[in-house]
Amino acid sequence: MTRLALVVAGTLLCATNAVAQTTNAKSRAAGFFLGGGLDGESIVVYGDPNVEESGGGADFTIGYGFSPHWSLYAQANASQIAAAGGGDYSLAHFDVGTRIHFRAGPHTVVPFLQIALTGRAVVDDINGTTTTSSGGGISLGTGLNLHFTPAVAFSTSIMWTLGAFDTFKVGDRTLDGSSIVAGSTRVHFGVVWFPRG
Fold first, then answer.
1. What are the strands, taking DSSP E only, across the chain?
2. 43-65 pLDDT per residue, tens
């Protein structure tokens, strides 16, 4: 009987500790999450010489954390870039990748690393005709979630993308052309919400 009482007491103690740890959690990274915010952005077209242009825009993120440490996510970004020769154009990124969170749970500051496959597109209007350049690349990034509740955090990150634009269209007509290698940088400030841990 004593042995049974000890087993029951031990089980209850473990369950109580698990509930206490969940209740005392200061941050989340598991389950569905949604995010959004503003971006500062620059793009460099590599050539002789290099051409660098910059602007700003906004993004939206949706993801799912399979554990407090790693998750899959998709992110869409659109920015307005000031052209070096005058005027502006739209630059869009679409990422599908993985994000690795560190220190989630007992800490309010949760750093993360991310890597993604990225599609990019530049859309411009030249004398009333829409031109589009698009292509793929790979992105690497790092950031911080700063939690003011376990479910909601201010989020900031920086993302670097390297790839090539290799599909070109003027109106509905596809043009032949060589690829253009370009790198882009995105600096993000926004919020992220983890509805359930």
1. 31-45, 51-65, 70-82, 88-101, 109-126, 129-147, 152-165, 167-170, 173-175, 180-193
2. 999 988 999 999 999 999 999 99
Closest CA to 99 of 65, 76, 58: 65
Cα distances (angstroms) measured from residue 83 to each of 41, 87, 119, 166, 176? 13, 6, 21, 20, 23
Burial class (CB in 10 A: 0-12, 13-18, 19+), 54: middle
Position 192, amino acid: V
Question: Is the model's pLDDT at 163 over the cut of 50?
Answer: yes
pTM, whole model, 2 decimals? 0.83
Query: Distances in Å between the alpha carbon of 101 and those of 22, 52, 136, 153, 187?
Result: 17, 32, 26, 13, 18
Assign domain 27-193 to its CATH architecture: Beta Barrel (2.40)
Of the candidates 98, 50, 55, which has an alpha carbon nearest to the alpha carbon of residue 77?
Answer: 55
Burial of 163 (0-12, 13-18, 19+ CB in 10 A): buried
Nearest CA among 187, 8, 32, 26 for reference residue 109: 26
Phi/psi-derived region of residue 139, left when phi > 0, alpha when psi is between -120 and 50, beta in every other case: beta
Helix (H) or strand (E) holding 21: helix 2-23
Alpha carbon distance 135, 11 (integer Å) = 56
Q: What is d(CA 169, CA 144) in angstroms, rounded to the nearest whole number? A: 38
Which amino acid type is present at position 100?
I
